[in-house]
Design goal:
Layout (H helix, E strand, L loop, with lengths): L1 E5 L4 H12 L5 E7 L3 H7 L5 H15 L3 E5 L1 H17 L6 H18 L3 E5 L5 E4 L5 E4 L17 H4 L2 E2 L7 H10 L21 H9 L4 E5 L5 E5 L20 E7 L4 E6 L8 E11 L7 E6 L7 E7 L5 E9 L7 E6 L2 E8 L1
């Protein structure tokens, strides 16, 4: 049975592939997932920029003597990610495309396409797994708190996680870079992708403007009801956002949107605390190993090293009620609230 490695052409997945090759993994095969939407590529990044990714991936595979296959998933990406993101943005919400990318594309559509021929799939994510006595797979945080990517993996199913390996999950980013240099891998000096999902050359704001355009509207101080300026369209902004408003006399923070009238509400930094939230509800929870009992946990509201202490109750309908120990000014509908117990990522839900 094949061990598949998702190879993006970047340094992390290249080091992951090298690790498995050196471990003597049998029937090792690399896969590049092509999700570029051609019209977007031509609008944003010039002619076929994905070919650069493939060139790095191919060079890596040639160096390691591992076969490479390109899997086209443009249709699945459009239907399962792009349409979801655009619907959420139109509704004034803040989607997390990278979270659903992992469940629906990298470890979803890809495994659907290759079928049972693939026994294990590996990636360059910074995360770890463990297995309990009952055979359940658990998702564990990486030791590098800045690069830890369990937030983005929180929607994985138990069935998916049982098939996944994270070869670099115990390493820090600096250690991965050093290994890539020691091994003289082609991607050793390549910068990390900063784009939407794994469309590394597409800026998220460009992506939004291409699909939704601009819709200028007023920016209103929610405390004084005075007009401060004009925004480009409410879908470009999220709750808690500070930068990109173009306002003087700040700092100013986005605190609300009124989609019907295309109004963006802000508050000054001196009033920010009173606009913060101490509690919120979340829907459609995904629990990776088992449903936890109500109690005290830690929470990530966004990717990064910061964890917030919270108390969680689970309603009869499965929805979550979260009480934060410290208020947060960036709680935005549509974002994912990801729940942790010590080093384990239990899963997450979408903020209402």
């Amino acid at each position: 049975m094949t061990t598949a490695v998702l190879l993006s052409g970047g340094v992390d997945s290249s080091v992951a592939l090298h690790f498995l090759r050196d471990q003597g993994v049998k029937d090792l095969r690399a896969y590049y997932l092509k999700v570029w939407l051609e019209e977007e590529v031509l609008s944003f990044a010039g002619d076929c920029p994905w070919e650069e990714d493939v060139q790095y991936a191919r060079s890596t595979c040639e160096r390691l003597d591992v076969p490479l296959e390109i899997i086209p998933l443009q249709t699945e990406y459009l239907e399962r990610i792009v349409e979801h993101v655009l619907a959420e943005l139109r509704a004034g919400r803040t989607p997390s495309p990278d979270v659903f990318c992992n469940r629906r594309i990298k470890f979803g559509a890809f495994l659907d396409r290759v079928g049972e021929s693939v026994e294990t799939v590996a990636s360059g994510h910074y995360a770890r797994t463990s297995t309990d006595d009952a055979g359940r797979a658990h998702l564990m945080r990486a030791p590098d708190p800045v690069k830890d990517q369990t937030y983005f993996l929180s929607q994985l199913t138990q069935q998916q996680l049982r098939k996944i390996r994270f070869p670099i999950g115990d390493l820090t980013k600096s250690e991965v870079r050093q290994l890539a240099t020691d091994w003289e891998l082609p991607a050793r000096d390549r910068k990390d992708s900063q784009g939407i999902c794994f469309l590394g050359k597409i800026d998220y704001r460009q992506f939004i403007e291409y699909h939704l355009g601009q819709r200028p509207g007023p920016i209103i101080d929610i405390d004084t009801e005075s007009r401060l300026g004009e925004h480009r369209g409410y879908w470009f902004y999220t709750i808690g956002q500070r930068y990109g408003l173009g306002l003087s006399g700040g700092p100013w923070y986005v605190v609300a949107k009124q989609m019907e009238d295309n109004v963006l509400f802000v508050t000054h930094g001196e009033h920010r605390q009173k606009r913060s939230r101490s509690s919120f509800d979340a829907r459609q929870p995904n629990w990776i190993a088992e449903v936890p009992k109500a109690g005290s946990f830690q929470l990530k509201l966004r990717h990064g090293p910061d964890l917030a202490d919270c108390h969680m109750n689970i309603g009869d309908d499965g929805g979550l009620q979260i009480e934060l120990d410290q208020p947060d000014s960036g709680v935005a509908p549509g974002q994912h609230a990801v729940i942790y117990s010590a080093e384990e990522c239990l899963g997450g839900a979408v903020i209402c």
